[in-house]
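User: Teach me something about this protein's shape.
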Amino acid sequence: RSDEAWDILDEFDAEDFDLATQREFNLLAGEVSDATGDWDRAIRFYEAAMAQPGPANEAQGVEQRLLELGIELLEGRRQVLFFFTDRGRGVVTLENLAFTGQFRGTRAEALARLAEYQFDRGEYADAAIFYAGLLDPSLAALGYEDQAAFRLGTCSAQRVALDRLNGSLLLQ
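Assistant: First, the predicted structure itself:
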């Protein structure tokens, strides 16, 4: 009965409630939107809930669902109007999670997915930013360091324009 639930929720905005209830409203609206297949609306509500303080177990569940939705969008498994992929929305969702998430594991997974996506597209400057993020000491011991360091070097090597080779770029 998710459609009926959305009809009721649609009459309200999070701002209609006090701060403690806003998070609950955003979580519920996110879950209902997710259940009705409206992933764009679900992402917006989940991101709003993630930005508000609340129990850690709920926050971890929200971050995990955002990670799943972001990956599905990035891989083209979610479409707009049943035909068009929205990989850009997946990138934004994973970036938001990577830079504002509370949990190391989901942040690192989001960074890794973004880095690989940009690397595979030949966007080496963007990929390098995400690989460098994986080398942050706060994400140590999650198993990404070796691959991130290697790929960071590969990104730098790929960005070398042989016709404009100079010493500092070569050192990098």
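Now, about its shape. The first strand starts at residue 79 and ends at 80. The chain is about 70% helix and 0% strand. If you'd like, I can walk through any region in more detail.
User: That's plenty for now, thanks!
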